[in-house]
Amino acid sequence: MRIAQISPLFEAVPPKLYGGTERVVSSLTEELVAMGHEVTLFASGDSVTAAKLAAMREQALRLDPSVKDWVAHYMKMVEQVAQRADEFDVIHSHIDYFPLGLLDRQRTPFLTTLHGRLDLPEFKMIYETYGRTPYVSISDHQRLPIPRLNWVRTVLHGMPKDRLTPQPVEQKYFAFLGRVSPEKGLDKAIRIAARAGVKLKVAAKIDVADRAYYEREIAPLMAQGHVEYIGEINDDQKPEFLSGAHALLFPIDWPEPFGLVMIEAMACGTPVIAFRRGSVPEVMEDGLTGFVVENEDEAVAAVARVPELDRRKVRGRFEQRFTARRMAEDYVAVYEELIAANRKPHLRAIGD
User: Fold this and answer.
1) What's the Rg (C-alpha) of the chain?
2) Sign of CA dihedral 293, 297, 303, 308
3) Cα–Cα distance, 49 to 53 (Å, whole number)
4) Per-residue pLDDT tens digits for 114-152
5) Domain that holds residue 96
């Protein structure tokens, strides 16, 4: 099968440090290639892939301070994909609504995986404008704000089985991994760790947009003795970081569409204590891979139960549910359905 993958341009594929969607696109692309498919990846030129790389610019947007209008780069990429559409059996987009107007009007089967939140009114407006486009959700909960779209499948994220593995290290702290922003709940994680009397290690990115929030709300909390900030980390650093944690704290305060850090922790055999928001109940199995809680009080209570969990079973559930091969097989099934539907003759009713 000849497959085009359209990646965001903000990070390389895979990202050097933080980057959720680009990391998923990388996992999917490499697994599709390993399965024997001919894949072309439209991404930044600093990406590393076994697929054919169609470099849309020299480097990722986040690394290039000269970029003033990132939308222009996306529009150029969409045009280049459209010009090459006949080269592919299916086109798979991961860049939200940008390509819909153009790629919805060409003949090659086309689908979009939506990776972000959908609970803003503008999103309902724009996606319903292209209501016939096939969409894939990354959790069932993600669909709730716009339930009547042409949802063809929910495909939970996956990652390479051996990218992150349990390490033989002693567990000495709680971990917080990801991004510093109001919805990610680092302030809550700091309070939970303090109440539990356990050290918290924070491996997180601080975006420019969140810098003021960090300085105002988080920096004073980081000065507490039980908190250690180690900054952004890469995949090579994650196994030891996550394996050394009693649990990953995930006290989110927003409708998380998926939450990749949860399965990264599970891959290392590390349980997760997560707030019941968004996709969490679909990803986590309460009492097996961690604990799903409602608030800080319940999170603190769950800390005492962490030793009850078997870290080997946590890793086992990752292998059963969240590998890149399972994700790729799910997507191939979607591709085959779209290609078959596209080949069916479209009969016109009598009198049309």
Assistant:
1) 21
2) negative
3) 7
4) 999 999 999 999 999 998 999 999 999 999 999 999 999
5) 2-160+323-343
Mean pLDDT for the stretch of residues 185-191: 96
97 part of a folded domain: yes
Instruction: Specify the amino acid at residue 63.
Output: L
Question: Which H or E run contains 228?
Answer: strand 227-229
In a domain, 7, yes or no: yes
The reply to whether 17 and 125 lie within a common domain is yes
CA 179 – CA 206 distance, rounded (Å): 6
Q: Are residues 156 and 15 in the same domain?
A: yes
CA nearest neighbour of 165 among 265, 289, 260: 265
Q: What 3-state class would DSSP assign to 303?
A: helix
Three-state secondary-structure class, residue 323: strand
Q: CATH number for the domain including 69? A: 3.40.50.2000
| Per-residue pLDDT at 256 | 95
Confidence (pTM): 0.92
Q: What is the pLDDT averaged over residues 315-340?
A: 98
DSSP 38: E
Confidence check: pLDDT of 191 > 50 = yes
